[in-house]
Amino acid sequence: MKVGIARDEKFLEHKTGHYHPEHPKRLDTIYRMLDQQFKDRLILVPSLPATLEQIERIHTPAYIKRILKTAEQRITSLAPDTPISAESYYAAWLAAGACVNGIDRLMDKTCDAFFAFIRPPGHHALPDKASGFCIFNNVAIAAQYAIDQYALERILVIDWDIHHGNGIHDIFYESPNVLYLSTHDLMMFPYTGEIDQTGSGKGDGYTVNIPILREFTDDDMIYLYQEILRPLISGYRPQLIMVAAGFDAHTDDPIGRSRLTEATYGGVTRLLKQLRSSPENPPLFYALEGGYHQRALAESIKTILMELIGSDSPMPLLTPGQAVTDLVAQVKKIHLPFGVFNND
Ligand SMILES: [Zn+2]
């Protein structure tokens, strides 16, 4: 696969304070890994700021104005957990734009897959509110852009960050054009994403919330994604697959309290590569969300990129536990009335 990436030193200028987990060093470590492991093997997609119009499709004018005003202050607290610096507004603008540019390069087939190595993250950002270290909702802005610019009607957004992406969830809750699938720990911030929240109105059935257990292993998670994504991709036929790629469910993460390793992220990527081959051959888009252990973050991303540029290999033999097989059955039962899953 031809794999594009976005990276820019400007993302490092968004400062959150010495003790904040969402620190510039996260990206610094990723960029060094890219230089060491993937020199000349990836297509660099330049990051340009999003247009005001693109951001206004998701965020309110009053909120955008408030973000612009932060350029006048050395430090602003947008939310108790979201301190930002004078340079942050530009990083946020550029992060959204990097995602939009990635969509363009996927749609014109310069790349088959694209990964935006950006910060601040986005999946908790609401139309009029920053929270959970997020300012603009990068994935939502890019998904809306793909709908507006390329008339896409079916975008699958997978969110494997350990925190529920309440921003993406709420923004597209009534839309059938974006199917939001999240695996998350319900007992963590923002404490949303109940299994029986399945969308509403025209979006009925197009939200799939899967609260996972902290005990889940790599095998459990890969099995879960395999059993859910097979019927989902065959039923929904996405034209674009986007991943809100947070890595805080990694066992080494200081926040996530879970047990996964980079094998999960590699395994699900291998699965996506396999499943995208039919029927629509949708491109794959990833944007960085959380993940606060530097080595785990770099290793997880390396594993994904290796899968994307490497040759196809069969899925590993999995030994899932009883809890995950029960959970998969429960999700399918809840979603049975909507017919989005192809339950053949
Ligand atoms: Zn997270």
Please, could you describe this protein's structure?
The chain is α/β, with parallel strands linked by helices and 344 residues long. Helix content is 38%, strand content 14%. It has helices at residues 24-37, 52-56, 61-69, 88-107, 138-150, 166-171, 218-236, 262-276, 294-309, 322-335; strands spanning 3-6, 43-44, 75-79, 82-85, 113-116, 155-159, 178-184, 207-211, 240-245, 284-288. A hairpin with a 2-residue loop joins strand 3 and strand 4 (82-85). Helix 1 packs parallel to helix 9 (294-309), helix 7 (218-236) runs parallel beside helix 10 (322-335) and helix 8 (262-276) runs parallel beside helix 9 (294-309). The longest helix is centred in the N-terminal third of the chain and has 20 residues, at 88-107. The two termini are 30 Å apart. It binds zinc ion.
